[in-house]
Amino acid sequence: MEQTAPLTIAPQSALRSQNRLRQTRRRLANAGMWIGASLATIIALVPLLMILYYVTAQGLPALNADFFTKLPKPVGETGGGMAHAIVGSFILIGLASLIGLPLGVLGGIYLAEFGNNRFGWTVRFAADVLNGIPSIVIGIFVYAVAVRPVHHFSAMSGGLALGIMMIPTIMRTTEELVRLVPMSLREAALALGATRWRAVLKIVLGAAKGGVITGILLAIARIAGETAPLLFTAFGNRFFSVKLNEPMSSLPREIYTFAISPYEDWHQKAWGGSLVLVLIILVLSLVARYFTRGRYKAVR
Amino acid sequence: MSSFMTIGTLEPKNKGAKPIMQTAQNLEAAPTAAPSEAPTGTTAPVPSPTILSRPASASVENGRKPRTESQMNITAKVETRDLNLFYGPKQALKSINAQVAANAITALIGPSGCGKSTFLRCLNRMNDLIDNVKIKGDVTLDGENIYARGVDVVALRQRVGMVFQKPNPFPMSIFDNIAYGPRLQGIKHKQELRDLVEKCLHQAALWDEVKDDLKKSALALSGGQQQRLCIARALATKPEVLLMDEPASALDPISTLKIEELMRELKQQYTIVIVTHNMQQAARVSDRTGFFLLGELIEMDQSSQIFTDPCDKRTEDYITGRFG
Fold first, then answer.
1. Residue A73 lies in a domain
2. Within an 8 Å CB–CB cutoff, is residue B217 touching chain A?
3. Per the domain annotation, does A68 fall within a domain?
4. Please, what is the angle between helix B190-203 and helix B223-235, to 10°?
5. Of residues A174, A33, A57, the one with CA closest to residue A115
6. Which residue from B minimizes the CA distance to A299?
7. Domain ranges within chain B, ordered by starting residue
8. Nearest residue in chain A measured CA to CA from B238
């Protein structure tokens, strides 16, 4: 051991960098990356803020009590509202959720818990493809299977089209989040004598609840603004209707009709409708956040 | 035989008496985890009090000494016969024949990956959850084969509870955590649940620390408290056997001590099997110890025997720290 080369003697401090240039370059790179990332974030936020600003600025003047309670006035008259479209949108979203929620959530649980096989792989692939199918194609499909046979447009077919669109989104997010629940929680439940489904429903889904609900909201937010699949399914209705087997209006559809009209008053209403749509989604998100706030999170 | 049993039972601390056989009866009454005091088999040399530094004796250089009788004649709560377990093509357990004595603490020791946790999980069929696991052989609980056709796994797991390595409380309140098992069994009555929760928390020595905030999140407890909560939760299903998979390995020494004290309390009513990496812990708390190596149960005997005078050279090498 004594024969080894003498140790290099460190300068005053071993912590001081030997190479000033390299140190400067490192600092510059660090600052550059930080500025770049911050800029990208800001730029990404600009359109969002602008949309919010624009929609609010243009839409707010159109909002009044009439907007929420009255039907549109005939062409040429000012005033009136979009009550039928607001109610219609809620009904359509409800119908879609009736289809999309159970299928999506249960399917997602299946994929996460039992889907490690060929079948699961196929379903996952199919869900991804379905997720990528343009919404108008889904509209045409539903038109072919649910509108043509009965010879009339209906709210039900609209709900079906939107529901189909919800399934893959909810299924995949549910799967991802259920997978994140640690195995130890499942084992704990099973070791206490829970059956598999009880362990999954109460413990696993309970632990993944927040994320699953966020996924559901994203899906709802997505379909709430869909126009294309409703064009040949729910169609649209100038009058107030809550009948599921008749055409029904919806906010996006009404925004479209009003926006392409030549009347200034209608343009105003279109902006108002847009603002209402944005607000609905905002409120939904807030409500869900409130209910899924981590009541049993560790206090740190 | 019975006369020796009586000696052991009546005078457990009598060092002079050297019973030939250790039976389950005197095993229950034998002083816990005190190897220097516990009686040993007649063939054994007088053990030195420091269990981990005993030099290898020349007579056991190779192979096994003849089995001492101490292993026979146990009232086994759980018993395995020729238990083999395969993960796909890999054999993880090789022909395990083990007996778990009733109302005693059985420790399973051995190096990592030797199959002790796998073995433990066989006892309440937790391995059923893992794909690709094949099990051959019998595991009996009170003489009934738990792998027989038609066995209700849910009922089995209620009788054979489990505590895991890492505390795994549910993300719910303390109360709901403990009430989970009873609720599964259909107990809905509020007062009954409340009494049960309180009793289990008392048993797990946690009541005084949490009695004022049962509504608080279980995740807000410290690690040691969480593990005791998990024990309380396991007790709430009123199991007969409690399996503990390294229950103290994630805990600090004080929490560990509490858990060990707890185990000594609990063995009055429960049969406990504990997997541990900590040999001092095994020596401290267990009445019987099984040593696993590469999927085999090398030997299983009274802890005093294993830690002072093991039959097998490999056991001795392991407990003296020569490997593992």
1. no
2. yes
3. no
4. 120
5. A174
6. B220
7. 2-72, 78-319
8. A192
> Is the domain defined by B78-319 classed in CATH 3.40.50.300?
yes
Output the pLDDT for position A15: 62
Residues A270 and A125 in one domain: yes
Question: A249 and A156 in one domain?
Answer: yes
pLDDT bucket at B131, cuts 50 / 70 / 90? confident
Instruction: Name the least confident of A152-166, B38-52, B129-143, B213-227.
Output: B38-52
Alpha-carbon gap, residue A7 to A3, rounded angstroms: 11
- How many CB pairs below 8 A link A and B? 76
Query: Is A147 found in the same domain as A53?
Result: no
DSSP bridge pairs for B290: B108, B300
**Spatial contact of A297 and B171, defined as CB atoms under 8 Å apart:** yes
Say if residue A127 is in the same domain as residue A252: yes
Give the burial string for B175-195 (b: 16+ CB within 10 Å, else e).
bbbbbbbbbbeeeeeeeebee
- The verdict on a CB contact (< 8 Å) between A186 and B185 is no
What type of residue is B324?
A: G
Model pLDDT, residue B17: 39
- A240 and A125 within one domain: yes
Write out the two tokens for B216.
Answer: 């608080």
Beta partners for residue B300, in sequence order? B290
Helix (H, G, I), strand (E, B) or coil at B77: strand
- Do A296 and B171 lie within an 8 Å CB cutoff? yes
- Measured torsion, CA atoms of residues B189, B192, B194, B200, in degrees rounded to the nearest 10: -130
Contact (CB, 8 A) for B27 and B104: yes
Q: What is the pLDDT along chain A (300 residues), one digit of tens a residue?
A: 445 555 555 555 556 656 788 888 999 999 999 999 999 999 999 998 999 999 999 999 888 888 888 888 887 777 788 888 999 999 999 999 999 999 999 999 999 988 888 999 999 999 999 999 999 999 999 999 989 998 889 999 999 999 999 999 999 999 999 999 988 899 899 999 888 888 898 899 888 888 888 888 889 988 998 888 898 888 888 888 888 888 888 999 889 988 998 888 889 889 999 999 999 888 888 887 777 776 555 443
Which structural domain range is residue A156 located in?
83-299
3-state secondary structure of B265: helix
Q: Is position A188 within any domain?
A: yes
Best mutation target among B128, B166, B170 (most A Cβ atoms within 10 Å) is B170
Q: Which of A93, A20, A123 is nearest to A252 (CA)?
A: A93
- Helix, strand, coil in percent for chain B, rounding step 5: 35, 20, 40
CATH code of A193's domain:
1.10.3720.10
Report how many domains make up chain A: 2
Whether residues A46 and A195 fall in one domain: no
Sign, CA torsion A173/A178/A181/A182: negative
The pair of structure tokens assigned to A193 is: 């004598």
Q: Which pTM value belongs to this model?
A: 0.72
Q: Which of the residue ranges A100-109, B53-62, B271-280 would you say has the lowest mean pLDDT?
A: B53-62
**Whether pLDDT at B12 is above 50:** no
Torsion sign over Cα B94, B247, B51, B75: negative
Residue A116 forms part of a structural domain: yes
Beta-carbon separation of A206 and B170 below 8 A: yes
